[in-house]
Structures are given as C-alpha cells and as structure tokens.
C-alpha cells in the first residue's frame, strides 16, 4: 500500500479540530487513507455509497447523527448536504477534536449549501491523485527547497523522454499504476461515466447530460490555456449560462481546476483570465486519445499535457509543503509571460517556466528575467523545467532543471 504524504497533516488536524473533511476526487484514495486510521482510533465507519445507510440518514438527519457512536468517519458526505446542520448542532455541544472525519468527492467551498454550514468548525484537507514521489515511495521537498534558495540537483539519472512521457500519460490515480494501456482506457471510461451519472447528478439536476462528454473533450483540447467561456460556448454549441454551470460542476467534482492570474504593482495591464487544467494528466491524455507513440510525434499538444502534469504535481506538493504557497500564472498584454508563479504569504515569488523540449535557450527565460528585474528581493529564483537531462545555471537566480527534479531533487 502506497503511503500518502498528507497523512501526517491529516492526523494533526484530527488532534485539534472537531470536524475534518478529507476532500478530493473519487478514486484518489480517500477511503483507503481513512480506513488506516480505524486501527489507531476506534472510529465508527459509515459510507453514503451504501444505500441503506444513505436512506437512514436522509429520513431523519438529526436523529441519525444523535445516535451514531463518535468518533465517526462518514464517507461521501456530499451526497447528504442537509446533514451538515445536524453535525454543526452536535459539534456546538461537544467540540472534542477528531469527533468527525468526513470525506467528500465534491468541493464544499464551491457549493454554498455544503460549505456555509460548518464555517469555523471544519478543517479541510485536500487529497489529490498520487504524486510521483508517492508512487516511488519518497516525499518531495521541491517547494520548500526552492523557497530556501537552495541549489537543486538530481539524485538519480534523469528519465528518457519516453519514460517521462509514460509517467505523465498514466497520471496519478492509484488504481492505474499497475495497468496496461487497454486496462487504463477501460478504467477511465468507467470512471468518467460514474462521475457524470452519479456525482454530478447528486449535485444538480442536469439537462442535456449527454452534452458533458463532448464538453470534456473540448476542455481537454484547451487544457493549459486561458479559460475563454465564449469560445467554449461556440465550440460546444451550448449557451454561455449552461457552460458556466457545467464548468462550476466539473470543478466541484475535481475534474478541472483553475489557476488564477497573478498581479502586482508591476503593471496595470495584465491578463486577468484564469488558466484551466484537468486534475490529472492521465485523465487529460485519455480524453485526447494520447499514448506514448503519439506523444513522441505531436510535440505541441504534448507540451500542453506536460504543463498540466507539472502544475498538478506542484498542487499536490503544496498540500503538504511547510511553506504555504499559492499557484498563479502571469501574463501581460505586452507579452511577458510565466507559466507558474509560486507565492508565499510574505509575497516572495518563485517563477517556473515549463518546456517539453530537450533544450533551453536564453529566450525561454525572458518572462523570468522580467520578473527578477522588477521584483528585486521578492524574487527568490526562476526555474525552467524542461525535458532535457542537465541542470544548468543561466544567470543570477535563474536555472534550468529536468522535470524529474520535482520528485527526484536533492
């Protein structure tokens, strides 16, 4: 069983908060993780994927919560949002830490009827698909290391382009790590069907559900780009209001996520549109019908998949890094652009450019140079992550590293 790096953070949260929500997409390992805690503390375990349990709680939520033995783990809590009020009432009477461990496959912060009830009482822990370090059985420290200004180096030989692409195209869902290509395709097909037919239906009454698979393919083709709902509306032949609603639902069930634009006093003329990514590079590859053979031939689209992969890996590491960071992108109307801005709470910045090519030129550092010169001391360092094999210093605070430095760096 693969150890999840977030486990220590989860256990600490249970030691201080009466309610902890382990939040993440289906099949990322939430149930497996919480079941490990059953042996450490005598939790009652319930899941609302069990129809009898679901109906019992739905018939009388207050009585159900009152009679459940605590502490309790409740799996797939988003299926009964009305239960949050009963949990709130119980916790207001007894705020013992670790009283409730909830898991959810829908983000309560994006669904007001779920999120508002437990504000100030609930700590949320995000669980994403497996990181590359978790797959290898090691903890990654990339974010903490780069903010310390420490020089990075690989601990092992860098991956070949083919081996790197294999990792990227498999992605991070635990079930897929030992599957062949045919099994991965069958699993992804079933997974998306479950999400569309069950989770999204649980959240909203959706008309034209048959339109969602086509919309997902359109979104996949635009991954790693600026989110333009007008263009998506045109290509999908859906009205803009429906597109906005579908995007919100797909974000709520952790299929897509947005990366907001970063702004500062550097310029008043910056591009404010968010960029859009899929939560997992393997899911993106499936929607685009990409395999390794095609990936090695179609460099432009593969470049977008590689960027999606790197962003996802950094989002995973941000859930456990000691330094709290937010991820943004940066683009000005004058043409200055940086793929990823990592910003800590003090406003210190690490800029990251992503290139799938095996070479790096000074021209690839233009956006990072612009940031370095404008930010001064707030600029910690700039890094180009690329498909090559060498770590290269370019200039003051500017470096190029193989993409595998994310999980294999010292």
Structural class: alpha/beta
Strand residue content = 15-25%
Number of DSSP-assigned strands: 14
Count of separate structural domains: 2
The dominant shape is: globular
Total helices: the number is: 18
Major sheet summary line: 6 strands, mixed
Indicate the mean pLDDT.
Answer: 91
Q: Radius of gyration, rounded?
A: 22 Å
**Biggest sheet, strands in spatial order?**
9-10-11-12-14-13
**What's the end-to-end separation, in Å?**
25 Å
Poorly predicted parts: none
Helix content: 40-55%
Describe it for me?
The protein is α/β, with parallel strands linked by helices. The protein has a six-stranded mixed β-sheet, sandwiched between helices. It has a five-stranded parallel β-sheet with strand order 2-3-4-1-5, covered by helices on one side. It has a three-stranded antiparallel β-sheet with strand order 6-8-7. It is built from 18 helices and 14 strands. Helix content is 41%, strand content 18%. β11 (349-355), α17 (366-375) and β12 (379-386) form a beta-alpha-beta unit. The protein has helices at residues 7-14, 30-37, 51-59, 61-67, 83-93, 112-115, 132-136, 142-147, 161-170, 181-203, 212-221, 229-236, 240-252, 281-287, 292-297, 299-318, 366-375, 405-408; strands at residues 19-23, 44-47, 72-75, 100-104, 122-126, 225-226, 256-259, 275-278, 325-331, 337-344, 349-355, 379-386, 392-395, 398-402. The chain has two domains: 7-126, P-loop containing nucleotide triphosphate hydrolases (Rossmann fold); 132-408, no CATH class. α3 (51-59) packs across α4 (61-67), α4 (61-67) crosses α5 and α12 (229-236) packs across α13 (240-252). The longest helix is centred in the middle third of the chain and has 23 residues, at 181-203. The model has no long low-confidence stretch (mean pLDDT 91). The radius of gyration is 22 Å and the shape is globular.
